[in-house]
Amino acid sequence: METLRQRLRSIDQKGYKAYKAIEGTYRFPAFTLAIDHVQGDPFAEPSKIRVIVPRAKTKLALKWTDTRPRRVRCEDVLVRRVHHELRQWPLRARGSGKSGLVLIDAPGQKVLERTAVQVTDETITVCLSVGLPAHGRRILAKEAEAIFFEQIPSVIERAVYGLRDEDIRPAVELADQQHAIRRYLYEHGLVAFVANGAILPRESGVSDKPLQRGAVPFQSPPELEIAIPVPHRAEPIKGMGIRKGITLIVGGGYHGKSTLLQALEHGVYDHVAGDGREFVITDSGAVKIRAEDGRSVASVDISPLIGALPYGKETTQFSTENASGSTSQAASMIEMIEAGASAFLIDEDTSATNLLIRDGRMQALVAKEAEPITPYIDKARQLFHDYGISTVLVVGGLGDYLDIADCVIKMEQYVPFDVTGEAKRIAAEMPSGRKAEGGESFGRIHERIPLPGSLNSQKGKKAKVATRGRHVIQYGETDVLLYALEQLVDDSQTRAIAAALLYMERKGWLDGKKTICQLLDAIEEQWDRQGLGSVSFRKGNPGELARPRRFELAAALNRLRTLRCIK
Ligand code: ADP
Ligand code: MG
């Protein structure tokens, strides 16, 4: 500790580069401080440090981390506490650029496994970013001393040492309950659960926080209500269960259909207490599928949904730099089957209509032979039968879908009703006049093998991999655009995806033998066994990653314009 003080004093007022001298590890009374990476100048990405606290000296009992979901929850509680304590300090000290910033990679409404705080049986590691202070480019050692010897010890004292059982218990109990519901879904053939009383609408289109005023709490229709027993409370939790198979969400415009579907999309992740979606739980293999014209597609066999295109363009190995609405959505479907999805969540609002339906009149006017698309309405049942993939589909206008639904939920003034019986009666009384076009089965999925060179992080002479916000990964010469991934929910997930891609490249995993599915399995296994941070190439300090699902990782790989595959 005194070494650090001396080093800082000896570089006071010197040029910024002299800060490099403080990289190293220092023992403080309450923790070990590792200064892993010192930024090159005051305007660069802040320096990376770790604070390592011996767990035995804290009050964090071992029982709170005895399962994986519990450990992740404890880490989440600690990140939020550190973030809260950091905010009690002035945002930054005097100085240029990022001088005096002390940050942690704080989460939003979701609880994700992240590297910002890592808890093991022995240690609690807190990763921070610090803008080392300078005036112009001259080192302000006094300010730096205040950060390391006052601010950080005080924050750690309050956030980590100050942690009591009563701070952690409610969070861990909620984690246990959410986990119990997930298991229940899995064991009882359910795709999703929405608890009574849940608040689904969000504050705004750009906020993940609950709508504060005038939100109508969710109330299950009696026919669909189930009760799920959960730990830490006597009464089971009641709410609407959505079964496997084909479920439609219908209703008038602005009556809450998309809001319900979005809640299901986000239910693949756990939410914090007070979010309103604590007990909205969706099978973690459920994937939103939407149209995304303009995206690239690499050698995807979309023939189950789209056959030979005009001028004989092949669709068994369909590649394009610029997909249309329907081809982009079909490609996403096939890619997500390949990646192992268990359910598709689809909204008419964001779909290519011609992929969803060809009605009786169009069938009469345009012969099947002249229409490459086999609409999803003729494929959804086969998809469930052949691959076990359920569909939850929002439809406002496409009544032909009543024919194929197992369950129809009508939203009226934000209240759901089970109208399955009525829908079946209407379907029988008013035939759609359509002919089924789907053939005997969904069709084979050809697993693709990415070729070496598909991942190329070289930009000029240097490797360049960076993220810009949540939706752009700059990978070598190309930008991967992730705007359409509605289940990518945290910028740190995007960083983890970028890191995973680079890891696969550097490890030579794309050897022309492994399928995409095998690559995804391998990364997940790596994360499970070696930890999320193990894919990071930032030496020693992985501090700003959050775990994405395999589907978002697959989606990024599939949108890489340099991807080349064989099958
Ligand atoms: P639809 O898809 O049926 O056209 P949306 O789901 O987009 O309708 O909802 C329309 C509006 O109603 C949105 O602004 C949404 O935030 C709001 N809304 C949805 N559900 C509720 C609810 N339960 N309580 C209050 N407002 C809601
Ligand atoms: Mg809508």
What hetero molecules are in the model?
adenosine-5'-diphosphate, magnesium ion
User: Got a strand count?
Assistant: 29
Strand content: 15-25%
Question: Pairing-aware structural class of the strands and helices?
Answer: alpha+beta
Helix amount, in percent? 25-40%
Question: How many domains would you count in the coordinates?
Answer: 3
Overall form: globular
Query: For the report, how would you describe the main beta sheet?
Result: 6 strands, antiparallel
**Overall pLDDT confidence:** 96
Counted by DSSP, the helix tally is 13
Radius of gyration: 26 Å
State the gist of this model.
With 567 residues, the chain is of the alpha+beta class. It contains 13 helices and 29 strands. Adenosine-5'-diphosphate binds next to α5.
